[in-house]
């Protein structure tokens, strides 16, 4: 009886639009869970991922979130696949890993697209790609703290990928409740005397 109640409770939550929940969690960590009515999870996800992002930004003096500058002499390819490959190259590993956080990806993409014009006035230096000289200076001055700061922001992106999957897939408790019910009914069938 308990398993059926748990399954019904969670199946009601899954009726919400999974694609929208996934998009909302991509945009802001935990927002998809909030939309689904799972407020506790939403707050937990938002707090943990935001803590990692903010800590990484503070440790890295606000310069850890960016996509690398394109090579100066290299023109943007006209082929769509080559253009995507080039964009991923410019994003680098740290930028690619942070793709699951839309609140970071969108400003990084905007700053990257307008890098020749200088930082966008609305965003300032937030997500603006540093020059190689600036990166060398940050690495030299902050040393291991810079690497840890970048790592924190990368882990935040990876964790938000899991948050998005949770928003799209919904709570898994209904599966375990149903599985428990199936196992209990299978035991009942085996325990019943066979007629023959």
**Number of structurally distinct domains:** 1
What is the number of strand segments?
A: 0
Q: What's the total helix number?
A: 9
Shape: elongated
Order of helices and strands: HHHHHHHHH
The low-pLDDT segments are none
Mean pLDDT across every amino acid position:
82
Q: Helicity range of the residues?
A: 55-70%
The end-to-end distance, rounded to whole angstroms, is 31 Å
How does the major sheet shape up?
none
Q: Which radius of gyration do the C-alpha atoms yield?
A: 23 Å
Structural class: mainly alpha
Percentage of residues in strands: under 5%
List keywords for this structure.
196 residues, mainly alpha, single chain
Topology summary:
Blueprint: H1 2-14, H2 18-27, H3 31-35, H4 39-59, H5 80-97, H6 102-113, H7 132-142, H8 144-169, H9 173-191
